Amino acid sequence: MLKELFIREQYYHHHAYEILTAHHDIKSFLEKSFTTSIELTERTKLTKGKASEAIKADDLNKEIRRLLSVKKEFKFEVSEEMGVFYFSSKKSSIGGFDFALINHEENLTKLRNICFGEIRYNDNIRRWNDFLDKNPELKEFANQINTTSNQGINIPVVKGLSSTPLIVGEIQFGNWALAYRDFFKVLKANVQNSIDCLVYIVPTGALEKSLSDGIVTFDKTLKIIKDFEKVINVPVWLVGIDIKD
Q1: Which long-range contacts (CB under 8 A, 24 or more apart) does 37-46 make?
Q2: How far does CA 135 lie from the centroid of its chain?
Q3: Are 75 and 102 in contact (CB under 8 A)?
């Protein structure tokens, strides 16, 4: 069935509005992705023995990912380890972020330092080559920063190599308790990175009612952000999406 997806509610936390406005093209793309027609599979939902029309959360998740994948700069199933972001085209079991926009040159420099710098991974060569095999467009830059003469030392991570902000995102239609895990995850990743914004996509309105009970919603997430606003020091764009026929 064809449904119209749109943004019903939104909330900006900790300068998220200013950051996204400074990157207007990215904000516009995200808004456009959440305001379009999508194809969903209908199902029957039982609430206290009463049947009602509903939709499959997995289908909605896939559709949003498809819309975001139009912009090739977005990476999916992104995990963070020791300040480096890794990603895969396949579903990850690591529990990383659903999608991210990354400054690849800065990220590669960090990976180079923990592969060939002062403290090295045991599998440094395999890890380095695997990353470059997935990102062949970075091989030229990799050859510039990793030379035989600078082995064993860390090289500076140069800020501002490009105007690309570090944005991580979650598409959350699962159990309400997962929201806490998601915020802990972004706070952990922010320890060794300066995350510009977390884009947190949750259901509200008719969409919320069409999914399972006890899930993450706009209102529940907004309450978490306000209750812990002094702890959540990462800018957050909370996006409440809805559907109409």
Answers
A1: 37/2, 37/3, 37/4, 37/5, 38/2, 38/3, 38/4, 38/5, 38/63, 38/67, 38/243, 39/1, 39/2, 39/3, 39/63, 40/1, 40/2, 40/3, 40/243, 41/1, 42/1, 45/210, 45/212
A2: 19
A3: yes
Q: Where are the beta strands (DSSP E) in the chain?
A: 2-13, 36-39, 42-47, 50-55, 74-81, 84-87, 97-101, 167-171, 197-203, 236-244
State which CATH number among 3.40.91.20, 3.90.1150.30, 3.90.1150.10, 1.10.10.10 fits the domain covering 2-102+164-244.
3.40.91.20
Which pLDDT band, with edges at 50, 70 and 90, does 40 fall under?
confident
What value does the mean pLDDT take over residues 223-230? Answer: 96
Residues 45 and 52: beta-carbon distance below 8 Å? yes
Q: How far apart are the first and last CA of the chain?
A: 9
* Residues 91, 164: Cα–Cα separation, whole Å: 25
The structural domains of the chain, with segments of one domain joined by +, span: 2-102+164-244, 105-161
pTM: 0.89
The amino acid at 99: F
